[in-house]
């Protein structure tokens, strides 16, 4: 039923929630606090804190229909709590209740800055807990803090999406550093801006650095083929550096790389040397 899944990056959310979990644990007298994100079919634990008993690990995932989170999100009050999960009529027959073997539980809906459901903020304890209205309001206030952090992560992702890191070196020479995930939308942005930059600046040599490239689903990025072909048509010499080992190990990637009209070197300095430029201190 449950499995470990690779989570999306929520660096700011993780950093802040780790700091809040200790405060939440002390205030509510609970062992465990965690944040989940709603995926199409499951609830995935983004970050977690376990004081004395290791109950919920980060990366834990449960099918949506069998989660406490579903009860929280479907509640008119956007919250669900019970002093004993094993006795509460809505939770006592869930598989996860028997597996976790905990009693006290309180969870509230976690929304993003725009009010869309992101997931939940929950606490639980091996012992019975009677949560008061004050406790519920406290946890909701913590969820409101985290909603701003979710927005921060989204803003950072948007900045990365629109950013095309082209570094001018000398007249006619520039470096394009491909960093992070390159999805379809970002590929179009990179393709358009790089070709326009090459035309506007009279670029005759482009060094494309792949050392920070992340591969999506272990597929060869179509962007590389299209970008090199486009630059070649414009008469631009292309060199690639920092090929990720995972990319080179893929047979399909090796075949496509061998077909590109480009030179491959180990690093940017080697590429510049090959083009006749020397780095000086």
Automatic annotation (TrEMBL):
The organism's place on the tree of life at top rank: Bacteria
UniProt cross-references to Gene3D superfamilies, sorted A to Z: 3.30.450.40, STAS domain (3.30.750.24)
InterPro entries named among the record's database cross-references: Bact_StressResp_Reg, GAF, GAF-like_dom_sf, STAS_dom, STAS_dom_sf
One Pfam family recorded for the sequence: STAS
Stored SUPFAM superfamilies: GAF domain-like, SpoIIaa-like
Sequence ranges assigned to domain STAS in this UniProt record: 163-250
This protein's name: GAF domain-containing protein
Source lineage: Bacteria, Bacillati, Bacillota, Bacilli, Bacillales
């Amino acid at each position: 039923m449950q499995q470990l899944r690779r989570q999306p990056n929520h660096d700011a959310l993780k950093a802040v929630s780790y700091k809040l979990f200790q405060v939440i644990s002390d205030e509510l007298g609970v062992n465990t606090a965690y944040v989940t994100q709603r995926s199409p079919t499951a609830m995935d634990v983004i970050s977690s804190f376990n004081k004395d008993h290791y109950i919920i690990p980060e990366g834990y995932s449960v099918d949506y229909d069998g989660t406490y989170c579903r009860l929280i999100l479907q509640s008119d009050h956007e919250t669900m709590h019970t002093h004993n999960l094993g006795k509460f009529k809505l939770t006592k027959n869930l598989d996860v209740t028997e597996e976790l073997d905990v009693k006290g539980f309180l969870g509230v809906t976690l929304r993003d800055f725009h009010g869309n459901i992101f997931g939940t903020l929950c606490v639980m304890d091996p012992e019975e807990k009677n949560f008061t209205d004050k406790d519920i309001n406290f946890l909701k206030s913590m969820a409101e803090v985290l909603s701003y952090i979710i927005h921060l992560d989204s803003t950072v992702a948007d900045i990365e999406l629109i950013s095309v890191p082209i570094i001018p070196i000398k007249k006619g020479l520039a470096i394009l550093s491909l960093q992070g995930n390159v999805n379809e939308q970002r590929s179009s942005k990179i393709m358009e801006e790089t070709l326009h930059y090459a035309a506007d600046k009279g670029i005759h040599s482009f060094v494309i650095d792949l050392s920070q490239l992340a591969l999506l689903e272990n597929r060869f990025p179509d962007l590389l083929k299209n970008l090199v072909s486009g630059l070649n048509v414009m008469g631009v010499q292309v060199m690639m550096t920092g090929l990720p080992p995972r990319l080179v190990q893929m047979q399909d990637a090796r075949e496509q790389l061998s077909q590109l009209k480009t030179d491959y070197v180990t690093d940017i300095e080697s590429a510049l040397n090959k083009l006749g430029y020397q780095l000086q201190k």
